[in-house]
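Thread: quick sanity check before group meeting

JM: Hey all, I'm pulling together slides for Thursday and realized we never actually wrote out the predicted structure for the chain we discussed last week. Dropping the sequence here so it's in one place. If anyone has concerns about the input, flag it before I start.
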Amino acid sequence: MGDSTSMPDCAILDEDALLDIIEDVWGDQTLPGSPLAYVAVPDEQLTTMGKNAITFSSTDQEQEPKPDKPKKKRRRDRNRPWHEIARLESESSELERELQTLMASASKRARGALHSRNINAQLKTMLKENIEDIRHLSNIYCIN
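JM (edit): ok, ran it. Output follows.
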């Protein structure tokens, strides 16, 4: 009964047997991946290296991970890329030309309505600013 602690031999395969099984099953198939990862090696060198010898480029080798640096976030309101600035400038000049042509073709009544609308918008912003100033002063001087 001393044999009860040992495992049966049929359940455990040694490493060489496992590698032989893997070679039999997967030996005829190519490795998946990009064809750009393989270094071009003439067939003569492959036969001298061995039947299943495959060489890889240096990009496939594992590299040490670089420490992660926090990525700088650019302020969208300050630092726009030059191509975006050029696009916006050309867009604004086109829109200004379009506005001038529309204003020239507009009637006197339409231009007057637009002028009144602009004045009303300015007065509303001034009124909001004055109300905020009055609230701020009333909080400072405790006026109820």
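AS: nice. The chain has two domains: 13-58, 83-141. The longest helix spans residues 108-141.
JM: adding both to the slides.
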